[in-house]
Amino acid sequence: MNKFYHSVYLQEDRCGGCFTCLKRCPTQAIRIKNQKASIIPEFCIDCGECCRHCPHHAKRSRRHQFDDVRQEFTYLVALPAPALYSQFNHMEDVNIILSAILLSGFDDVFEVSVGAEIVSEATRAYIADHPENWPYISTACPTIERLIRVRFPNLIPHLLPILPPMEVAASIARRQAIEKTGLPSEEIGIVFISPCPSKVAFTYAPLGLPKSEVDRVIAIKDYYPILLSHMNEADQDTKLLSRSGSLGRGWSVSGGESMGLLSEEYLAADGIENVIHVLEDLEDEKFEPGLQFVELNSCSAGCVGGVLTVENAYMAKTKITRMNLNEKFVHPEYIGQYPPPSEFAWTEPVVYEPVYSLGDTIFESMENMEKIESIVEALPGLDCGCCGAPTCKALANDIVMGAEDACIEDCIFLDKEFDTKGE
Length: 423
Prior knowledge:
Elements: E1 8-10, H1 20-24, E2 30-33, E3 36-39, H2 49-53, E4 59-61, H3 66-69, E5 75-80, H4 94-103, E6 108-109, H5 112-129, E7 136-137, H6 142-151, H7 165-181, E8 188-194, H8 197-204, E9 216-219, H9 220-228, H10 231-236, H11 246-250, H12 256-259, E10 266-270, H13 272-283, E11 293-297, H14 313-324, H15 362-378, H16 392-400
Parallel strand pairs: 5-6, 5-8, 7-11, 8-9, 10-11
Antiparallel strand pairs: 1-4, 2-3
């Protein structure tokens, strides 16, 4: 299994070499050469920012199409992300959406928001029993997990070792489908309806477990027109299918997961640039003792801001808030019907991947660092991106590490010769 599987990719024939993605990428994973972008796979965290901002729609996300998925399995179970509920106007009853999902061709539906409520319960218990690694960092967003794994290794012990709601919901949905139909597992398709590309990448290269229970992932924005065509019929014949309350649905917006802790000792941040600042401060131990939990969402406003959604992120956040006003926090009639939260802990450790390493030994790394600093001193420090790298330091790093075609002459403002070896 490729631990660096990526959903985000470049459709080169659409790329105009405009530098927009170069400046938007939070991990400096993009380079521009010969008026075409390229993505450094080791640095990419599938946040989707390049997809969001590319004016030519050259950055795209791999995912499955519903019509294809329907041909693959005997029995299909939909896993709607809580963010799906926020994509419709004047929607007060999510049972209409869930009924429309069945009318569209799914055989059953299991809410990821139910998985979120189970994870909330597991999180409360784990944090209370393990104060030694406070604050714990949420592991619901795969982009944040990957970012910590490659850039903030000192924070790995603070990752909450509990599976994300998508996986919890998928595991329960598969068990129920097998019991209900008697079919073998391979004939049952568990399909996640996703707001973002990082969930796609997670299903191919999951963290904390050997294999994802999700078989296919379709995008909200692809499935939305199909679902919309069944809404009127669903409104006329609505089935009572929802089993989650405001707690589970609230996970779709920033701060929603933290509310499930029933504690005030948390921090919630959204937007990948803001998240990076929080992680840097966590690594530098700038927060006061007593902080128990850190919720981080790479998308602004939370999952409702995912690049695979259709509604404006902040309008979607308002809709979820309004929808939850008259809802129960959880549905008490379903408590105890699912496996205990303890079953959904990590079974495999998450380890550091040193993709930004400058050498195989500390001495080699220090030597290369000196070379990089020497080149940076000779560069103008404009960080303009005209060389095809996002910053002067990134260009220097590419030169020293032997990146293809990287050279000091790429800087169009350099007016003097320089020994690129730093000698």
